[in-house]
Amino acid sequence: MEPLASQIRPQNLHEFVGQEHLTGAGKPLRVAIEKKELFSFILWGPPGSGKTTLARIYANAVGADFYELSAVEAGKDDIRKVIGVRGTLLKQKPKILFVDEIHRFNKAQQDYLLPFVERGDITLIGATTENPSFEIIAPLLSRCRVFVLNEHSEKEMEKIIARTKFKIPKDARDWLVQMASGDARQAITVLETANKLYGKISLESLKEAIQSRHLRYDKKGEEHFNTISAFIKSMRASQPDAAIYYLARMVDAGEDPKFIARRMVIFASEDIGLAQPTALVVANAVFEAVRSIGYPEATISLAHGVAYLATCKKDRRAYDAIFEALDDVKKFGNLPIPLKIRNAPTKLMKDLKYGKGYEAYDKESYLPEQLRKKRYLK
User: Fold this and answer.
1) Is residue 9 one of the residues assigned to a domain?
2) Reported pTM
3) Does pLDDT of 219 surpass 60?
4) Would 283 be classed as within a structural domain?
5) Other Cβ atoms closer than 10 A to 242
């Protein structure tokens, strides 16, 4: 049976709830839909924010054939099949390829897709929960507009929940809105599960319905943040066994391996820093390995990196230094740079004593006069 979230999916912008900055009067997606403008774009936003729904509404509005792939499962052969579909000679509709979780496509898959987008063989719509700047290759990203979606507000969630037509007590509705944290699809799924299992919607039936391991580890849920926090703190405390255990929990729950690896790259500079400079090299190597091979083999690379980072000595001086310096920048603004270290490409600048007295390996502070005695790296 078709899931409830799919059954009540909005068919047009009139039915769509939220993302007013994109779909409101005069806003870019509404204008594109009203004018039937065909172009490739990326929808970047949290789970359940309406990315797939907007893609389908757009495709229907411009009169295009809509092909949907999940980057988790699809490969080059699946793309090739879509490209190979031919319409009739009398009426060739535009072809839209929607790639859900496009950040899961590796570089080779994105490179393969690029020429078809360039030639206009397909119009690409990608959906991602990750920053496209990090996950989409530059040539492909440059040919797409990026639209940023926000998580649904509480009022928007209440409107979406009302579409299910279930009779929901106020305490159950309020709890569901808070639990779902803006994820419309999760809220609808929990309602549907509670109704199937218990024949009614109540606070108790909703709480029972969410006992699924994967629902409890939703990417917007408390368990997600608790686990990643425990993971980072275990590495910080140099406890590799605990860090690997929390890594295993995330892997088992289906967490995006690139999300885990990205946090490891941050950790390598934030917590290890100068104590072991090669930690950043290892963390970046893990990220690249994960990007290249994906699950299940990426689990091994992640474990390798976690064991290394957890056992490294720790040094947060560089981390503390840059944020103390940033505070001073905000506090004092752009203080005058000492003349002796200013660039002097013209005669006028030299006459104004730009660069005068500069010597390599000078012991005198190069900080602005007001901060001359300041020490950031302690």
Assistant:
1) no
2) 0.60
3) no
4) yes
5) 16
